[in-house]
């Protein structure tokens, strides 16, 4: 992380800065509410001294009227102050969530590396919520301090001794509360880490549920989740114990302060230094102090949890992109000439390859890992360690990743579908106004739609799980074809379909992509047979290039890869 990268402290500051107006309004109304609450015991004391002691009915009625108006003002100020605080928390949470999603979806990538989707979802929900709540805590803290200060001023006017007890005791309580929040902060961070991991594991298991059932791996999966869930429970209990200990100690110390105020006030009343009404006011103010001091204890806990969550958010936001954005634009129009020069990355060992505009090229990798490395470089999910990948003579590293993907689409083998209908999935990346019928026919989705209750308007469920594996593959391929990119790279698009359907797709794919550059990274003989030529990638190097039928005759490694 560079020195300019945001830290947890920066995330907290930005969250508060963005909601200054609502926090200010909430703090003002909350402070007014606390001042009104503090003045209630004073009014009661005045009523006792001026109305009850002297049996003055008129003065009593005036005091009761003032109290009634005061309670109405208290109710309104509390309602609108709380509304402003909740609005500030919700807006900050929303802003943080948008920032996180924007970073996760950034074309440069990088944020998802080393993190499961479930963990990222937990950060974007629970951690964002905790950081947003800091705005509410800040507003409540300012209001509570205002209430304590009002109480201290009133007590000072009654008695210097009473005022000093409050003014000197409150900072000590705040300092102790801050010290006690340190263990809570570290345990809260551990709690969120474990909860995020448990969420990620659960999402991972649900995604692969069909596969687990097919291989009889349910027991191992349950055992894995049980262990993860227990770790999460343990971290949660530790955080809860830390919070309970902090709250309990602060509450006990608060009780001691209130008892001290009541004791000193009682002695002063016995000595005649203060009146009976002032004694009642002093005891009432001592009891009132319980609310603001408990609020400050809660604020300390919220700030501790907010700091821990802000640190986790900052780690995601500050993750450097996997690839940087270049400053060159795409050539217009994009011809679709792709060239690899001395590309070394992962298992690739100096790959040199020229793909002509409009060519339908097959790529067979004897090692699936080499195919994955090649796809990562073509999609610019990473840049080669050495060498370059070019589009129409321009190195991909000189292009903006988002702009590059408007010209070159790399469709992964395990591409997920979105929650929505079949048609909505197919048209997700299609240019506006495009008719997807041709793409759906070429990928065999028309046949899929005929078997569904609502045809192409049938909902596919989350990640397309209501469809079979072959149906999902055909919808994903149709989506890639409907995007109509000048360059399309497809990885094993027909592994889950039958031979007859695969042959139809091969013919349809060649027809729909005629005149546009297409690369099929696959070991399917049906797909390879319709290509213009095939490249054999063996042990990280291109060892031969020729039509599919010729490579079948020439290379044992090729025959093993495509016919085994």
UniProtKB/TrEMBL annotation:
Name of the featured protein: ABC transporter ATP-binding protein
Ranges where the ABC transporter domain occurs: 332-564
Highest taxon, organism lineage: Bacteria
Presence of the UniProt keyword Transmembrane helix in the record: yes
Subcellular location: Cell membrane
Major subcellular site: membrane
Organism whose genome encodes this protein: Streptomyces rectiviolaceus
Membrane topology value: Multi-pass membrane protein
GO-annotated molecular function: ATP binding
Residues annotated as transmembrane: 59-78, 136-156, 162-180, 248-268
UniProt-listed InterPro entries: ABC1_TM_dom, ABC1_TM_sf, ABC_transporter-like_ATP-bd, ABC_transporter-like_CS, P-loop_NTPase, Type_1_exporter
Domain ABC transmembrane type-1: 24-305
The entry's keywords: ATP-binding, Membrane, Nucleotide-binding, Transmembrane, Transmembrane helix
